[in-house]
Specification:
about 450 residues; 3-stranded mixed sheet
């Protein structure tokens, strides 16, 4: 019996076999949304009328005998930073509250071409800044496991909606952990692909590569299905990798016997990590070793990552949002406004230094993965924190100076360009989800999925 908690693969297969219609599947999801969304606030700009039109159209296409895509008949809510033609897209900002794009961006175009139909959007922080999902347009998204806690961000609405069974799959984007952190907080899977794996268009700057689009799902195989739709070259995206997306559709779990695993809880003291999060990462290491992996304590030298990420983030935010901030200075949250203004004083030499360091980090990782197959470390340095806080102000009693400090375990990996995935692996003593972060060399997305499948199976034992 198909339900909203069935895998996305099973839901899509049932629609194709006509065991359930797209309209019936939509009704199941709308019932779950009515049950959970009023409290959790994950899905925004919900339009049941247009969703029903989309489901009807999906059923009519199937009845015609036409060939259908791998996501045919699945309801989909796109991240509210991804433009959907004819659909309100606010970026979580009062400045953009009435924005209705004329066309789909590339990620949306691909998901819809694969047969999914739009039901609404998923909530985000203001302009996707910060890893806690709240804004003045729609309010705060809460954690589906414990609604007093944060769902993470910036793809917090997506992760929450997935975990609560409101959608079968979700899209997201990741600059400093926006796919990975909410996946860890909500107990789902989120992947930041290799640079160029999931092309994006249009962009204000096709050469700015700190942020990438990527998939989220309740399990690794469903995530791989969505990645197969999102990935692949496009002539509008000059940095897109050439591997066809279909290559990622059906990964098999990797054999863990002899897998060379580098395990690090804190990257050699570079990270302050909550004790309960550290315990989950250490447990993952023991489980991998017990399954035959060669697990050793090792980590790459990512000391250049702090300055590199913060410089490029500030430069990117100022270039993209500086003029809007100047026009609407009262309409930006203070932490975002400060980050934008930090970019105003950057010189060409500062940006050049950041890119030179980023190149060095890439070389560091290339050498590191000559000796190791995968790096295992925390996704987030903390478990889900109270939803009333903008960000954690301390870890293990040590103060966090800014709203970025607690996200280093994610954004240090960002500036390496390597693929990384968050896989649920345990909980805190109070039952809050904790994921582990798996990282592989640039371009090794399929191998990373295969290892993630094996780790997912270990976690289920």
């Amino acid at each position: 019996m198909i339900s909203v908690d069935s895998t996305a693969r099973d839901q899509a297969a049932a629609v194709r076999r006509r065991e359930i219609s797209a309209r019936e599947l939509l009704d199941l999801h709308l019932d779950r949304i009515a049950e959970r969304n009023p409290e959790l606030n994950a899905i925004v700009s919900l339009d049941e009328s247009r969703a029903r039109q989309g489901a009807l159209a999906a059923d009519e296409v199937l009845a015609s005998g036409a060939e259908v895509g791998p996501l045919h008949g699945l309801p989909f809510a796109f991240k509210d930073t991804h433009a959907v033609g004819g659909w309100r897209t606010t970026y979580g900002s009062t400045v953009m509250a009435d924005n209705v794009p004329e066309r789909d961006e590339l990620i949306v175009e691909r998901v819809r071409a694969a047969g999914a139909f739009t039901i609404g959007k998923t909530n985000v922080p203001e302009f996707a800044a910060g890893s806690h999902t709240f804004n003045k347009v729609f309010g705060t998204t809460l954690n589906p496991v414990d609604p007093t806690r944060s769902a993470g961000g910036s793809s917090g609405g997506a992760a929450c909606a997935l975990a609560a069974g409101m959608v079968p799959l979700a899209d997201g984007s990741d600059m400093g952990g926006s796919l990975r952190n909410p996946a860890s907080f909500c107990g789902v899977v989120g992947m930041r692909p290799s640079l160029g794996r999931v092309p994006e268009w249009p962009l204000y700057n096709q050469w700015e590569t700190t942020s990438v689009g990527g998939p989220m799902a309740r399990n690794v195989r469903d995530l791989a299905l969505l990645l197969s739709v999102m990935a692949g070259p496009d002539p509008r995206a000059p940095q897109a990798l050439g591997t066809p997306g279909a290559s990622f559709a059906d990964p098999a779990a990797a054999s863990l016997a002899g897998l060379k695993v580098a395990l690090s809880v804190d990257l050699g003291g570079a990270l302050e990590v909550d004790h309960e999060v550290a315990a989950v990462v250490e447990a993952a290491g023991r489980a991998l070793a017990g399954a035959g992996a060669a697990v050793g304590s090792a980590y790459p030298d990512l000391s250049l990552a702090e300055d590199t990420f913060r410089t490029l983030r500030a430069w990117h935010f100022q270039a993209k949002l500086g003029s809007l901030l100047a026009e609407h200075p009262e309409d930006f949250k203070p932490s975002l406004a400060d980050n934008i203004r930090a970019g105003e004083s950057l010189t060409g030499a500062d940006v050049a230094r950041a890119y030179t360091q980023r190149t060095a980090l890439s070389e560091t990782m290339r050498a590191f993965f000559g000796d190791h197959d995968v790096l295992v470390l925390p996704v987030s340095q903390v478990p889900p924190f109270p939803a009333t806080q903008e960000f954690p102000t301390e870890i293990n009693g040590k103060p966090m100076a800014t709203y970025l400090d607690w996200m280093r375990s994610a954004y240090f990996i960002t500036v390496t360009g390597c693929p990384a995935i968050s896989v649920p692996f345990g909980t805190t003593s109070s039952g809050l989800p904790v994921g582990v972060q798996l990282v592989a060399r640039h371009g090794a997305d399929l191998q990373l999925l295969e290892v993630a499948l094996a780790v997912e199976e270990l976690a289920a034992r």
